[in-house]
Amino acid sequence: MEALSQYLDANLRLPLPETQALLRHWQKPKSLKRGDFLTRQGQVENHLYYIQEGTMGIFYDIEENEQVVGFGYADTLICSFPSFIRNHPSDYYIQALSATELTGIARSDFYRLMGEYPRIEHLWRQMLEEALLGRIEREIDLLTVSPRERIQRLLNRSPHIFQLIPNKYIASYLRMTPETLSRNMR
After folding, report:
1. How, if at all, do strands 76-78 and 28-32 pair?
2. What is the DSSP letter of 181?
3. Measured between alpha carbons, how far is 29 from 45 in angstroms, rounded to an integer?
4. Is residue 176 within 8 Å of 146, Cβ to Cβ?
5. Residues 92-114: pLDDT tens digits?
6. Helix (H, G, I), strand (E, B), or coil: what is residue 63?
7. Can you tell me the distance from the alpha carbon of 142 to that of 128, in angstroms, rounded to the nearest whole number?
8. DSSP per-residue string spanning 126-146
9. Which of 26, 53, 123, 158 is the most exposed place for a label (fewest CB within 10 A)?
10. What is the structure's pLDDT at 62?
11. Domains and CATH numbers, the chain
12. Over the stretch 31-76, which tens digit does the pLDDT of each residue have?
């Protein structure tokens, strides 16, 4: 819980009552081994998770080919956001790429806290706005013709990804083969 408390302090800068309320409800620990699923396709996402350690991949099946659409790693939040927000079955699945430790908060508790504490709701909206901007950047990456440019844009935006995530998943995320990624990283 110490890592989550530090994350909330550093990233949300909430007043103490809001931080304490969140910490009281962020009580669902989860340990995953490499290959374990956090969320399966078709499952309704009922929790928002904070990743304490480890790495996660967010996958979408396109014509029976798994496509990486995002990553999660220590000190980030993860869930199937469309499912969490709409309370509908997930189109995505989230899988541990390494041993991963998480702590979750139930959707019902989180939304209730947003109703009780306007500052939490305001910060959630800001986080969603940042996520939207990240998705727009990803769209630009995928429209960029040159694999080298796609790699460079990801390096500029998130250089740590290359230390945390295996290249085969980065290649899928950038919509290229691992060989193309390797060739253009030189």
Report:
1. unpaired
2. H
3. 16
4. no
5. 999 999 999 999 999 999 999 99
6. coil
7. 21
8. HHHHHHHHHHHHHHHHHH-S-
9. 53
10. 84
11. 2-181 (2.60.120.10)
12. 999 999 999 999 999 999 999 999 999 999 887 788 999 999 999 9
